[in-house]
């Protein structure tokens, strides 16, 4: 029997993403402008920081997914990790927005250490949190509804930080922005901890998958270490090309991608008997077409959304000439985002998830691109186009995470194996990677116009870059996403077939066991 979830459990699960997005969608939206205008980093140094830290996520997300899949406690697989990591997530949120009295080099080292600490704590917390959705119910429609509650919570958490942060920084700082940021983060960290504990207390893990006891986690992590080049080498090549943007790094990127493609094809063709559990889990994912397309979608949609959110603080502070408009704009966007997330299950039921995904990408991209043509002081025009685009943009992550659960179902249906934690960890990884690259792209574009947050005379020459980052640059990534999702093979009818088959298999397995 498929499990219907209570309103209490859906709301409780959504509060977890409200907590996570105090960091992810909220505080991190201000981190770039904090680093350049308060902390004192150059745009180029901050861009490299964002890129390098995302490389570490390539390792930690996948390892965390494997560890969570192999965890067994009275609380389940995933909730213990949410519980244990929450205090550290709050701590590093505060530390990232603390400005120590160090030299320029000391500040840069401090920024790397605290940002890496924040992303690591976020990984240990959010990979299990995302995977929790995949084991709360077997019903794909309930998962879509749950995803709607999740992202309503996410946008509410972001709303609180992004809308209130400028006012709180001014209130606590009294002219000292460094002090204002630090004290504000104390408040948000305490709220984060309270919300996460509520999620752990109100949710339940129901789907149980038999464990492979023929090998140990340490053996599988050792096996994984030999496969890390498949992740790190392409990411390193992409990062070098993204940062330096020259012919030499472009040639290296092409060669690396060809070599990795050939290596992956060889790995997929290897007999299963020669693979360990961890190796087979990764091979299953690499041959899972729905998951691969969703992986690309996660990156492109985060580039689309991340670029817009990353430049908003600069755009209103300098291009529109009113820094306090930043908070009001974020409030407007996130109120609309909550409506978009809650509307997703209704729209998906009427249209189907794939057509809805394509529509949301195209409409949001068109409205975002139109911002380029809005006159400089037309505040209402910016708000109208931004809110319209955001309603459809909010649909994207809601569909993405519900469809990740479908790809885990598809893998179990196809192979008899299920690695929910690894499936969601990779999804979380590409979202964070996309967010990191989006933040870096914002800083690189501003840097190419000569922007330096500590030198006011460089502002005027970079206004055109801010305008492009607010409009046509993110729109290009949205259109690319619409093209990619066109090839997604799981229709709603096919997903229902997969769900029914898995339900029958699990019922038969329980009968035999009994």
Describe this structure in words.
- By secondary structure, this protein is mostly helical.
- The protein has one domain: Up-down Bundle (Growth Hormone, Chain: A).
- The protein is built from 19 helices and no strands.
- The chain has helices at 7-39, 43-69, 79-96, 104-136, 140-173, 177-202, 217-227, 229-244, 247-269, 277-286, 289-319, 324-351, 353-370, 379-393, 395-415, 420-448, 463-469, 472-485, 492-513.
- The longest helix is centred in the N-terminal third of the chain and has 34 residues, at 140-173.
- The radius of gyration is 22 Å and the shape is globular.
Measured as a percent range, the helix fraction is over 70%
CATH topology: Growth Hormone, Chain: A
Low-pLDDT ranges: none
- Backbone shape: globular
Would you tell me the structural class of the helices and strands?
mainly alpha
Strand content: under 5%
* Helix and strand element order: HHHHHHHHHHHHHHHHHHH
Radius of gyration: 22 Å
Q: What's the architecture in CATH terms?
A: Up-down Bundle
The total count of strands amounts to 0
Ends distance = 17 Å
CATH class: Mainly Alpha
**CATH superfamily, please?**
MFS general substrate transporter like domains
């Amino acid at each position: 029997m498929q499990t219907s979830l209570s309103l209490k459990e859906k709301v409780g699960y959504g509060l977890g993403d409200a907590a996570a997005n105090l960091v992810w969608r909220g505080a991190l939206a201000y981190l770039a402008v904090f680093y350049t205008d308060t902390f004192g980093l150059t745009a180029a140094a901050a861009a490299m920081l964002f890129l390098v830290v995302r490389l570490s996520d390539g390792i930690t997300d996948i390892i965390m997914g494997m560890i969570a899949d192999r965890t067994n406690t009275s609380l389940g697989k995933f909730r213990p990790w949410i519980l244990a990591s929450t205090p550290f997530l709050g701590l590093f949120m505060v530390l990232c927005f603390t400005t120590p009295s160090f030299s320029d080099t000391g500040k840069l080292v401090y920024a790397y250490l605290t940002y890496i600490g924040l992303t690591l704590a976020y990984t240990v917390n959010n990979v299990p949190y995302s995977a929790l959705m995949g084991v709360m119910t077997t019903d794909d429609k309930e998962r879509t509804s749950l995803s709607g509650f999740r992202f309503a919570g996410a946008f509410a958490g972001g709303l609180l930080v992004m809308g209130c942060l400028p006012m709180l920084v001014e209130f606590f700082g009294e002219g000292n922005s460094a002090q204002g940021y630090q004290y504000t983060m104390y408040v948000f960290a305490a709220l984060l901890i309270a919300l996460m504990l509520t999620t752990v207390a109100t949710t339940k893990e129901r789907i149980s998958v038999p464990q492979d006891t023929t090998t140990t986690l340490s053996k599988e992590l050792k096996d994984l270490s030999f496969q890390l080049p498949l992740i790190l080498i392409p990411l390193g090549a992409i990062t070098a090309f993204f940062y330096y943007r020259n012919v030499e790094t472009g040639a290296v990127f092409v060669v690396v991608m060809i070599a990795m493609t050939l290596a992956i094809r060889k790995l997929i063709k290897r007999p299963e008997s020669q693979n360990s559990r961890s190796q087979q889990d990764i091979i299953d994912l690499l041959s899972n077409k729905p998951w691969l397309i969703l992986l690309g979608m996660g990156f492109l949609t985060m580039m689309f959304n991340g670029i817009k959110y990353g430049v908003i603080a600069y755009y209103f502070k300098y291009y529109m000439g009113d820094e306090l408009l930043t908070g009001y704009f974020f409030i407007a966007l996130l109120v609309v985002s909550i409506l978009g997330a809650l509307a997703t299950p209704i729209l998906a039921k009427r249209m189907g998830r794939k057509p809805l995904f394509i529509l949301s990408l195209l409409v949001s991209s068109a409205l975002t691109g139109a911002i380029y043509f809005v006159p400089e002081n037309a505040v209402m025009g910016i708000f109208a186009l931004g809110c319209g685009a955001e309603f459809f943009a909010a649909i994207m992550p809601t569909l993405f995470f519900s469809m990740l659960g479908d790809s885990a179902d598809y893998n179990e249906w196809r192979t008899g194996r299920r690695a929910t934690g690894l499936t969601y960890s990779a999804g979380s990884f590409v979202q964070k990677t996309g967010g990191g690259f989006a933040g870096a792209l914002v800083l690189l574009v501003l840097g190419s116009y000569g922007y330096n947050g500590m030198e006011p005379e460089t502002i005027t020459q970079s206004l055109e870059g801010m305008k492009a980052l607010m409009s046509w640059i993110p729109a290009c990534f949205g259109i690319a996403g619409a093209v990619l999702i066109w090839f997604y093979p799981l229709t709603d009818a096919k997903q229902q077939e997969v769900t029914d088959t898995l339900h029958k298999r699990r019922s038969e397995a329980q009968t035999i066991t009994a």
